[in-house]
Structure formats: C-alpha cells, structure tokens
Records
---
Amino acid sequence: MNEPITMQLNGTTISWSGSPQRRLLDLLRDDLGLQSVREGCGVGMCGACTVQVDGQAISSCLLLTGQVAGRQVRTIEGIGTPESLHPVQQAFIDHAAFQCGYCTPGFILTVEALLREIPAADEATIREYLSGNLCRCGSYNNILAAVKALQSGNYSPLG
Amino acid sequence: MAVGQSIPMRDAVARVTGTLAYAGDIQLPEMAYARVLRSPHAHARITGIDTRAAEAMPGVLTVLTGADLGQQGAPARNYGISRADQPVVAYDRVRFIGEPVALVAAERPEIAEAALQQIQVSYEPLPAVFDPFVAQTAAAPELHANVAANRLIHAKLRHGDIVAGFAAADIIVEETFTSPAAHTVPLETHSLAAQYRDGQLTCWTGAQAPYQVHKLLGDLFGLRGDQVRVIVGPLGGGYGGKGHVRIEPLVAALAWKVGGRPVKLTLSRAEEFVTVTKHAASITIKSGATRDGRLTARQVTMTWNIGAYADSSPLLVSSGMVRGVGPYRIPAVHVDSYGIYTNLPSAAAFRGAMSSQSTWAYESHIDTIAHRLGLDPLHVRKVNLLRSHDHFCTGEEVHDMHVVECLEACTERLGWQQSAKPTAEGALRYGRGMAVMMKSTQATSRSETRLSLNDQGRLTIYTSSVEMGQGAHTALSQIAATAMDIAIERIDLVGPDTARTPFDTSTSAARSTTMMGEAIHQAADLLKQKLCTSAEAWLERPAAELGVADGVVYAIDAPHERLTFAEVVRRAGLTEISATGTAATKHGLDPETGQGVATPHWHQGAGACEIAVDIETGKMKVLRYEAASFAGRVVNPALANLQNDGNVIYGLGPAISEQILFDDHGRVLNDNLSDYLIPSFMDLPGQLRSSCVEDDGHVYHGIGEMTLPPVAPALANAIFDATGVRIRDLPLTPERVLRALTEEMSHE
Ligand code: FES
Ligand code: FES
C-alpha cells in the first residue's frame, strides 16, 4: 500500500492513499467527486481542468497527486458557492462571460489568480495570462470585460 | 416585458460555481464503463475476432461485436438517419481508421481499457481511397454496394438560361476553393450512458436532436416509442457535432448486451476526431458579370468528402447546393453538389454547416470579380445583393432580406469608405476585407411545446430544445414570460426528456428561437383562452369580455375585478391548466431542378475586418473585426451579441489554423489539442464588435451561426487587399500565406 498523501483541499485536510502517479484531475473528479474540475484535452492545452496549487492556477491534468502532497489545492468550490458568490463569479454573470460554461470554473480560477498576481495588468497582459484557458464558445470578449470591470471596481483580491 | 432584456442565462449561478451537471457527469447506481476497440485499417475485411481472453478478465462484464447483432431478438446491425449504411459495430468490413470493431463493458474504465488489448482481430486489408475525385474513378474501390463511383449524392439546381447568362457577361471568372476536414471540438467530448432493462431503453446523452436519437433507437431495437427514453442535460458545447445521431447506437447496443446495468461511454479527445468531422470541400465557381458589376450567370460545382458513411450527408449535401450560391440576384444559375464516399471518418454538421465552405468560395470569388472589373467590392456586392421580394435561384421569392443592412453595419463601423487603412510599415502590410452570408434553415421541421400553469401560479415550459450554451432555455423563458405576461422568475423549464417533453426536430441550424418560440406563443394564446374560460363563472362574464395581463385575468369593463392565475387554477378545482403549441414548416425543392421553396426564412450575416500581415513571416493579425447578423426581433441583446462574437471567434479557427491532417493511410495525425489548435485569447481580434440588425416584425430569427461563415473570406479578402495575393485554400496559416507571397514574387 502506498503512503497516504495529505493535502489541503479548499481549506480542509484530505488524506488519500493510492498511487502518487494518479493524475490530480482524476483524484479530484472521480475519487473526490468534484465535477467542476473538467477534462477537455488531457494535455495541458485547454485549462478546463484548472485548479490553484498554493495560489497558482495550473492544469490538474498535468499534475500527479504525489506532486501536491503537503500543498494547498483550491478548486472553484473553494472560491465561492451558489449561496455566496465570489466577486469574480459575480462579474462573470454580470458580463455574460460564458455560454456552455464548461470552461468557466477554470477561467474563474485563472482570473482570480491573475488579479492577485498582477492586479493592474494591461490588456495585452490579461490576454496573454488567460491564453492557457480555451473557450470554444468564444466568450473571450465578455471575459475581458469582466476582468476590466473587476480591475476598475473596488474589488480587492485579498479581501 | 421579458423579451428584449439582457437577463443572465437561466442557470448562470450553476455555471459559474461549477455545479451544472453535463451529460458526461451522469452517475447511476451500478454503472459500468465502456471502451471501444477501433480499426487500425482504413479499409479491410474482418476475418476473425476472438474476444474470449477479454471476456475472461476479472471485472469485464461483456464484449460486444458485430456478431451479436442482426439476429432475431437483437438490435439491427446497421443504422443511419437517411440511409442505413453504417454498422453499429463493424461486422464484415471496416471502412475507416477508428471505426468501432468491438466494445467492452467493465466495472471500471481502466479494466475496460486493459481488456481492449486482449481482443484479437484479424483483417485482410483492402485498397482504400481518401480523395473524393479519385474515389469517382474506375480504379477506386467500391465502398458500398450499389453506389456507382462512390457518388452517393448528386443534388442539382437549374435556374434560367445559363448559356445566355454567360453570353451576356463582359467578363467570366472561374476559381476553385478548398476547405479541409475540421472538428467541432466541444470542450466536453461526446459522453452518454444507456440502460436496457425489461424491454425499456433509456439514454442519457448530450445530443442536439433528442427525438432523432429516440426514433432511430426505436427502429434499431424494434421498440415502440414509449419503450425508448432519451434524456438530455446541458451540453458542454455542441456546434453541430452532437447533432443527428452519433454514438448512441453503439452504447445502447452494449447496454442491451450487458442487460440491466447502465453503461457509460465518454470519448477521449482523440476518439472525437474519428467520430465526426466537417466536410472537406472543393468548390469550383464560375461567374459572368457585366462591366458595371452585375452578375449574369453562375455555375457552381461542389464536391463534398462525406467519409465512409452517409450519416446526415444526403440532407447536408443538398442544403450545400442551396447555400452555395450566395445572397445574390443572378438570372441564371446551375449548381451540382456531389457527396462522395471515401475511407475517412464520416462528415456531418459543423457550425454553419456547408455554409462555411461555400461562403469561403463565393465571397472570395466576388472580390476577384470586383478586382478584375476595377470596382469596389462593397459596390459589387450591393449591386447584386438580394432585397425582399427578389427571387432567389430556387425560384422562390425572398422576404425579410437584410443582408445589405448587415453588410453596411460592418463596413460603416470599419470605416470602409470613410477612412483609409494604415500604410505599410516595415514588413507589415495592412488590408481590409468583407464578406456576407445567407443560409437556409431546415425546410421541413416541427417544434411542439406544452405550457402548464400550476395552482401556485408558476408556469412550466416542457420543451425538447437543447441547451448547449447558446442560451435557448433562457430565450424560451423570456418568450414565454412575454407571451403569458408573467414574471420570468415564475417560469420553470423541463426537458429535453422524450418521456415528458413533446416532439422537436432538432436543436440545429439556429432554428430553436424561431420555431420553438412560435410554438410557445401558440400554446400561450391557447392557455390564456383556457384561463379566461375557467374564470367565466367567477368573474361573471363570458371569456370574450375577459383580459389577461400581468399574471391576472380581469374583466375588461371593470379591471379591478380580477383573479390571479393561481386563483383561476385553484377555483377550477385543478392543480394545473395546460396547453400545447406547434410550429411546423413544410417546404422542399424539386430534386431535378432545385426549384421550389428551400427554407421558411433565410439566415443572414456579414463581417468586415482590418488586418496586418507580416510579409516576412506570413503571420496575420486581425486588428479589428466587425460582425452583424439579422435577428428579426432580439430576445436577449446580451446573449445575442455573445452568439455573434462567439461565431466570429469560432470561425477564426477554420480560417487560420484548424484542419484535420490525415496521413497516406487515412490516419488522423493531429488528434489532440496541442496539434489541432483552436482559437485562444491570443487569436481574439484587437477589437471585435458585433451587432444585430432588427426589424419591427414579431418574428424571432435564430442567430446561432450567421457571423461565422464570413470570417474566412473576409480575412482572405483582407490579405488580398494587403498584399495582392489571393489564397484559395484554407486554412490561412502563416506558412500558406508566406508560400503564396513567395510564389507571387517569383511570378513578377
Ligand atoms: S484537460 Fe487539462 S488542460 Fe485540458
Ligand atoms: S463557455 Fe463553452 S467553452 Fe467556454
């Protein structure tokens, strides 16, 4: 049997024993039932599987569970809930920044990280930062508008 | 009034919190998992399959092969929505690389995957053909019995005197345009669960046409309509690729063999590329024009590579014929549209079906004509564009034509006539281009709905329209709220579920808002009448003297005498009052001449852009893109413009990068998103603006596709404007642009 792996998932300590070679995506989605973490490509191109590890947005299809041992993992469930939306989630609604919504949790996690890391990012920087998340429905214009609104409103990333 | 307001999508909160369950998220008790063994040969005879070792593996429930099907009491071996030429699982022959040969059901996906390795299949390879022109030659293998020259479809349109038309022309221009196979790439791959228990088949699937799946499965299994149930949750993108019938027969047949337990199959990204593709097309277009730019004749020959099986191609290749001419008034038109079998995965609808390929041809072509005549391409379009009451080449009178307004909206915002494009600078060349489109929707289709008002005053819409991100359920709720004059918060929506929601042809060709919207209006009118009749006794007046507004029934001569909807239902001693509505169209064309009525209405759109091309690298940057579509009456402006934007971005894919590459054996080389690039934020034009052209009528026009087809020709026209080089093959990759520039220079 493998040594149990411990991580912080959305603020709760999770212990899991299984292969450290298992993809983080499969652990979250299949074993822990977090269906908001979605597979779109499996090769790190689409960002549908985005999670935050120690605050950084990253594709969970490229991570092995062994690599997140002892670290903080955050999924959209750790950002906001239907009862209490995070400002980034609210901005996505206000700006109609999605269609089918398959890419949306991944985008929101990336945008939340962007606004913490580079709060005053200019448009070129925003575009580049978000280019690892794909939206096949083509909601990019409205996502951009949501990000700009968050930048110009009194959204404070840490508050 | 709910119609006309930019309210958020119905389940917006679920979408931003990740709690929305897609088809692929379905979890059922006792669920088993499926994996598919696929053919490594493009064309071969199957000489033997041994599944014993796989079946003996612990955790494997069963293995399905073609040998299981076709006997008494089993599902049929072949299916097809227009022609039953496709095996559910291959039995004697395989016709493309990736064709399903066997299916495993197991306790876990990994076990099913491992079991595939244990299945032994022996093949006797046969000659294969991939090019539709070669496939029509005598030397080519015959892929299906009784289809001479592999030519499954030949749709014809004959209008006017073509000889006289060309004779009247001052110039005649002939060009050939190609577009390659592509993939719709919904981020959610095809996924479905099926269960066969006690003679009852249930399918939970991400399908755009629940009732087509329902009908086909009933036929395949010999079941009555009430023995088949198709339930469709929200889709993680559809774009045509989940239209008609895709992997449902495969999984349902496996569920039948498993017997009792549900089985789920989720396709990998790689499997998507062999499941459905966009038709590769070669279109030769020849036009005559007078010196002042008037079109006198047009002849179009379209060759569509339909792949190994008919699928929806018999319908689509015929639609392609109608969509191939362009929104122009041309006295003489001949079109021949051919659908040819090859040993490649089957082709089907791709957002803007057949219109993308044909718009690429006719909108590039009209710029060539304008250039040869030394005229402004905007002028040449406007001289020829159809207006309401003109006659199209099908002979039908067109109505609600607004292509001119769509085009003008785009060119004015771009400043086509008002401002000059930037001047060349270093290796950068600037150019502008435009394009229009006009697309038929389904000639014959039907949408039904049931509206039910309960004793709490809530209205439920029962509909089989599919929500795939386009906002159909939101738009339909807005229409119902307006038609019934109640608050949108009081509306619920159920469906699609063939056991509960009535018939609808499909959610495709941007038809839902129009057709389902009309069905809702009809049901609402009837429901209001029923409410008035029920209220007669209480308001002591005949129904004709009662009115309905703002959630109440009232006496017209004494508006303070009123009952809420909920009270009407309760006083009638009922828990609900319901009414149904149906919208149907029935049109069609003569098969020999293509004359008749092609569509109940025409979808129309336009685009105009400004680009920069780097002549040293071939790289193009879209600086500005202006898009417009005709929307009739706009239901939700924010969602409508999002559709328009989304179509432009989607259209950039096949325009600049997307194509499925096949090797010499018919194997897909780029079946992953590292090698098959779809548009990212980096491809978003510097400025992208969309608008809807409206009219005062009460007709809703679908807008799910209109701004997409103009993208590729608008870009190619801009490249021509920037560099003088005409590119006739998609996609417009930097390599292709660079090669075209180099060739042009070597000619000079
Ligand atoms: S599934 Fe991980 S990036 Fe696409
Ligand atoms: S909203 Fe559909 S992929 Fe982004």
---
Amino acid sequence: MPTLPSEPARGRAPYDLAVVGAGPAGLAAAVTAAELGLRVALLDAGPRVGGQYYRHPAPELGAARPDRLHHGWAVFARLRDRLRAQPRIDHLAGHHVWAAERGEPWRLHATLGPDAGDRVTVEAGAVLLATGAYERQLPFPGWTLPGVVTAGGAQAMLKAGLVLPGRRIVVAGSGPLLLAAASSLVSAGAAVPAVVEAGSYLGYARGVAALAANPAKLVEGAQHGTVLLRHGVRLRRSSAVIEAHGTDRVTAVTVARLDADWRPVPGTERRIGCDAVAIGHGLVPQIELATELGAATRTVPDGTVALAVDGEQRTSLPGLWAAGETCGVGGADLALAEGVLAAYAVAGRPAPRGALVRRRRRRAFAELMAAAHAPGVGWTDWLTPETDVCRCEEVPAGRIREAVEELGAGDARTVKLLTRAGMGWCQGRMCGAAVACLAGGPTDRPDSRPLSCPVPLAQLAEPPA
Amino acid sequence: MVIGAGVVGAACAYYASRAGLRVAVVDRGPVAGGTTGAGEGNLLVSDKEPGPELDLALLSTRLWRELAGSLGEAVEYEPKGGLVVAAAPAGLDALREFAAGQRKAGVEAVEVGPDGLPELEPHLAPGLAGGFLYPQDAQVQPALAAAHLLRASGADRYLGETVRGLLTGPDGAVAGVVTDRRELSAPAVVNAAGTWGGAVARLAGVELPVMPRRGFVLVTEPLPRIVRHKVYAADYVADVASGSADLQSSAVVEGTPAGPVLIGASRERVGFDRRLDPVVLHRLAAQAAALFPVLRQVAVQRAYRGFRPYLPDHLPAIGADPRVPGLVHACGHEGAGIGLAPATGLLIAEQLTGARPSLDLTPFRADRFPPSAPDAGLE
Ligand SMILES: Cc1cc2nc3c(=O)[nH]c(=O)nc-3n(C[C@H](O)[C@H](O)[C@H](O)COP(=O)(O)OP(=O)(O)OC[C@H]3O[C@@H](n4cnc5c(N)ncnc54)[C@H](O)[C@@H]3O)c2cc1C
Ligand SMILES: Cc1cc2nc3c(=O)[nH]c(=O)nc-3n(C[C@H](O)[C@H](O)[C@H](O)COP(=O)(O)OP(=O)(O)OC[C@H]3O[C@@H](n4cnc5c(N)ncnc54)[C@H](O)[C@@H]3O)c2cc1C
C-alpha cells in the first residue's frame, strides 16, 4: 500500500477503513475517504462496482450505451474514474462478507467462492456498512407462477443483461421503484398494461415542504411519468394485484381497488392479460452484519428496520459507520451524500455543507415516501390458506395462521421454528415481512442472521487467519 | 401456574393436566421463544454417566416413546439411535468402560468394530478405531415438541405477559403470579423459566444460581440423508460434564427430516453475549468435517445460538422449594432440557398431586447450593 509521507503513523491494520458494499454509498465513501488520505478496502459480493442503482452489463456483453437505462450515469462514471485513479483503494470484488468482528482492528470475514481456500479476513481500523437493501414482497395467490418476478429483479435483469422478463408486463406493488421499473421496461420495448400502486400517494400531500426541497426527485418522478404517459401506461392507485392466473406461466392478473387499510373492495376486481408481472413493495435495509453485533436500530415509517446513525453516520458501535439504504431506504442521491459524509467523519474532517444539505432534504423526502408506502394491515385479506408465503420451504398461509392461532407462535422467529417459513436459502429475505405481519408480533426487531450468507463448510473448517 | 412456555414448562403443563389439575401457563414471549427455540432436539442417554441425570434421561426415554404414539409425527420424533466413535484405540477403551457402567444402569450400548462402522454410517471418515451404538438415543424438533405438548395440555395460555412478582398468602406461601397485565392466583407456581429461573426464584426471595452457557449450532444446506444417526466423537462426553467456563466443542452431527444437517454444539460461559464467534464456528466445522469428510463439499446455510440454563453441578432443579411453600422448580436443565422435559413434567405432576414419585427428587433440590456472596456467579 502506498502511503503519503505526511501520513501519521497508524495502527497495524493494513486499512484505515473497510467499506462493505460498492453501491452509490460505498463507492462515494471509499473514493472520498481515500482522497482524504485514508487507506481503504472496498469489498463487494459482486464483480463490478455500482451496486443496485448503477448496475450495468458485463463488458463482454458489449452493450453500446449502458447509460441509456440510467439516470445519473455521469455521476457514476466520474466516481468510477476517481476509483480507478486512486492508489489508496483496494477494490476487493467478489468478496461476500459473512460476518464482522468488533475490535481493534475490526475483522471482516469474507467468502470468495466454493473452495476451502476461498476465504479472506480483512482487517481495518474502522468499518462502513453500505450493504444496501433487498426487496420486500407481499405474497398473493399465484405469485409463485413462472413469469412473476420482482420489480427490482426485472430492473436488475434489464440493467445487467438487457433482457426483458416478458412482453406484456404488469408492474405492481408499492413504492417509487415501480415507476422506475415501468419506465425502464417500456423504454426497452415491453408493453406495460398497468402500473398498480397500493398506496394512495395522498401521504405525499402532507409533506409539501419536503417535496419542494427536492426538485431533482420531482424531476426524476416527472421524467418517469412522462415516459409512462408517452407509452400510454396507466397508473392505478389504491389498487393491488390480488391474484395471478395461469397454469405453466402467468397469463393474467386480477386487480382490485383497496380501501385505506389495503383491504380489497369487493366488486372492483378486473382481469388484465399479461405474460409477466413485476412486483415489489419497497426495500428492506440489509443490516445483519451490524445488528448481529448489537448495533442500535430504528423503525422507518414504512415498517422496515434500519440502522440508527448520528449526524456523522456513526452507528451505536464505536468504529462502525453506515451509509445509504442501510440507514433507511432513500435512493441513490441520498446514498451518495451519506457516503461522502461518512468518509469525512471517519477521516475526522468537518463535513462539506453541500452534502449536509442534500442529506437533510433527501432524508426528509425518504421518510415521507416511506410513510406513504407503508403496507396497510388489510393486505393479508388477499391471501388464501393455500397461498405459499415462504417459497423456499413451500409454507402456505394456512399453516402460518395455525401456528399462530393454535400452537402459540407469536413472532416471526417462532413461526419459523414451527413451520420452517424463512428457513430456506434466502433466509427469510423474501418472506420475512409477510411472516412478521401474519405472526402479529413485534415488527421493530431486525431479523436474526448470524451468517450474512451461506459459507462453504470447508472454509469454516480452515483455522481463522 | 407454570412460568415458562419452553419445552419444560409445556411438559409440566401436559403431565399436570393429565393428572387432573387445572393449569395455566404464562410466558413473556411466545411458545418456545426462549432456549427451547435455540436448541437441538437430541434425546440422549449415551452422553450421561450413571447417576441422577441418567435416571431422569431413562425415564424420559420411556415417556418420549409413549408421547410419540400421539404426537410423534407432529414433533418429528425419530428413534434413530446415537453412534459414539473413537479415533484411537485408547479412546475406544475409555468408551467401553463408560458403556459398561451405563449398561448396569439400564442403558443399551452395542460395541461396533471398525468394520461395522461403514454399514451404520457409510460416509463416516475411514480409519476410526470403532464406536458404540446407543439405540435408545432419539430426536425431536424442540419448538414443535413444546408447542404440541402445550396444546395437548389444554392449559390456559397467557403468552406475551411477563411475570413481575409473586402473590403470597398470609403465611408467606406463594399463591400466584403478578404479570404486567393481571394477577393470577394458584396454590402452586412452577418456575420453568429456564435460563431465567434464577431471576424468578429471586422474586420469591430465594437464590438459585442458574447461569447461561452459550452454544452455537451450524445448519447446512438441505442434503440427502448422508448422516443416519446422531454421531459424535468420544470427547463430547467430557465436554458436557465440564464445569469450565472456557469454550468446549465437540461436534454432534445429525441429519434432520427436512434435509439440513445440524452440527452442534459448543459450550462456553460468556454471559448472554449473542455475538458470533468465528473460532467457535471453525471448531465445529473442523470437527464435523473430520467425522464426515463429505461435509467439506457443502455450504453452511445458517447458524444460531442459545443460552443453556446451567446449574453448577449440571443437574436441574426439580420439585418444591423447601424454603418457600408454593414455589416449585423445574429449570436448569442445561444442554438436556428437551430430552429431560417429560420426566421433569411427570415428577412435578406427581409431587403436586401427592402421588408416589417415579424417582427420588433429593439430588434435584433447589436448596442444595451453598449460599453465595451477593451476585457472585450471576452473569
Ligand atoms: C433489486 C434492486 C433494484 C433496484 N433498482 C433501482 C433503480 O432502478 N432505480 C433506483 O433509483 N433505485 C433502485 N434500487 C434502489 C437502490 O437500493 C438505491 O437506489 C441505491 O442503489 C442504494 O445505494 P446503496 O449504496 O445504499 O446500496 P446498493 O446500491 O444496494 O449497494 C449495496 C452493495 O453492497 C453489496 N453487498 C451487500 N451485502 C454484502 C455483503 N455481505 N458482502 C459484500 N457485499 C455486499 C451488494 O453487492 C451491493 O453492490 C434498487 C434496489 C434493489 C434492491
Ligand atoms: C445450542 C444448544 C443446543 C442444545 N441441544 C440440546 C439437545 O440436543 N438436547 C436437549 O435435550 N437439549 C438441548 N439444549 C438444551 C435445551 O435447549 C434446554 O435445556 C431447554 O430448551 C430448556 O427448556 P426450558 O423450558 O427450561 O427453557 P426455555 O425454553 O428457555 O423456556 C423458559 C421460558 O421462560 C420464559 N420466562 C423467563 N422469565 C420469565 C418471566 N419473568 N415471565 C414470563 N416468562 C418468563 C422465557 O420467555 C422462556 O420462554 C440445547 C441448548 C442449546 C443452547
């Protein structure tokens, strides 16, 4: 590692800062911190930097203009150039961190592949968690049919491989990602017969000030709106896909209007033909690396649990910082601002004013959106007893209700123990929110996931470095 | 009135209501929300030396078999047998001696020569000296066991209510509980609060030094049946009996009906520290891979931990507290509470109804520990 002659002597850790996650937050943080003189390790499970937002095709695909699918591609391109020019950053691609250990130094345990030797422990004086978020799903009858994909998944497929999940795609669920996904899908040539949004968007009206302070967000929303309008796409508010039809593949969906609690209003059902459905109910911060260490959390207005941070992006654990979606879902611009602020804080430098202002405005806007898209309690009305809630373990809603009503389960954990819901490969990332609702227990606790991802046993069997 | 809806509290409720008592169970969380939901379901006689705990285990073995008739499938009961293996001849000699003692107490133990091992466990590492098969060892899924015992008991359930105090009669006898929502009176209160049993005893003004002993379990991805019995290496028995606070681990490897292989469990006294310890995971994984090299090809999908309710002499507290009338203990089962639950429940029910006890309760008396200095030993 090259060191500047002016640099003070540091501890033995080879890095001053290890950043987990190379999305907008992690990338901005790593680049900024290195430019402030810190030695940085930037770890990401994926092969390329960019995270969810700046996901782009592998160069081998030879995509002529990945920027076409991206707002803010120029911002990303600049960050990437700064990363490439930066000798003080080691970009550790393909490093999936499965656990973090507190201490001086901090230790991050990562897996690189299937073999016994594919194991790395990275030591650093401080850690920044920028691991982003995963999608929240609320099941409905037929959601396991081929052709039903997640909205973010559809978006990601498009960005990474330039493929469409179908030709006639209903986009449904709740949250701003739906508009982004629909707009990308139509731009790529798909027909979108409807965008079905469960929220009323009325919540936005209560936060006019936050809206007015975020012209860029409005412009972005308006851009999606314009694209959708141009393609004749209808936005149905206060509505939901309550069933998907088909035998081998989805061929149609039933859409119904919802009351204020998200209960389907009888008599409002209508059928829409399609060959794919892209669904999503917003995002859930991915924070287990911190919560397994006991980091404090907060409940976001949309019902998800995020890391609690102070004005300097510091978590409750000394030496652990967080930025981006881990602090509450708020989009790429907020993630960038928080990444920059975290870097300044770790370096012990005063925060730049611009980033402070951007963070304040974007965070206010994010909380507003979160409140507007919080799932109503009545969504469970569209489940039938046979609807699989956990797809990995094939656990239907009826079994979960039995565990709660007859066997005494009272939270997501005991439902899992009694039914196996959430025990499969995805470790409850797909069904966790739904199971927690059905269990009726507290939803302000983060999911427990001592291992952040599966680890080959052969690697654990090797003595820790 | 039973405090605790873990497997022990559920078994107490089950046997008490079968004996004709009216029962209520209160728990601050859901059913199996404590250590029961964090344990493995080994019902072992193989790891116990002759003495009061083995007697309890043998009684439980019989009771679990009986329960299996009605609840077997629901609780995933599997009488699969345990296999203890030794790497070297010296280890096998020690096992032989241990088994001889157990046999006198009623344990079935069959010596298996090195050539017999592959037939029992085709994927076991080659070159082991031999082992012992314990046909009485069995398995249940702990959370299901607690939930179904509780349901079958028909007891009134007060879940999500914390016991904050005890009601006492004019004579000082315990006469019920005070939860954060109500008062519930009953002539007898059973302390089945597991690792938190010491805190409940303190509500009655007496000491019971229950401490947490942490354990981690590794869970692999779902696999076809490559492990047929509960398999562990000879050192396990020494670990179980150890009183040291330091880390002990010797992996017990077992398959489950759902497919994942469970590798457990470490033992260490570190208070209620929930943090994952890579050294512990490493030891468990290395030991499991030494027994079953094929496991090196699979992924560990998750890990979990729990805090065993540990009493200094490794025996639970079972029965009426001689110091406080009306208070009855059923806690402190450490790493064997799933296995020992039915016997515990039966003994408590017998005592509450004045029936002749199936076992002598003297070794399990709650006042057997010397009084400690204030707060000593409480983690
Ligand atoms: C599927 C999906 C699609 C999305 N599409 C859009 C979109 O089209 N438009 C939009 O505005 N927003 C989209 N978002 C929202 C997106 O989260 C934010 O806009 C933005 O990317 C957040 O930046 P971030 O840096 O906080 O997290 P992310 O961009 O999510 O970056 C997190 C990074 O951390 C890595 N990571 C996570 N856990 C580990 C680990 N344990 N070890 C190593 N690396 C790890 C991930 O590989 C990822 O690269 C999408 C989100 C998801 C989940
Ligand atoms: C990793 C691990 C592996 C294990 N493997 C095995 C095994 O293979 N075989 C085996 O037999 N045993 C095993 N055990 C041990 C076994 O899990 C325990 O002995 C057993 O679960 C104890 O049950 P319990 O009902 O006494 O306690 P718990 O299940 O903890 O129940 C006590 C209950 O009391 C409640 N409570 C406490 N205080 C209050 C209060 N003030 N008010 C209301 N409610 C209260 C708690 O919420 C809790 O639900 C293992 C344990 C661990 C940690």
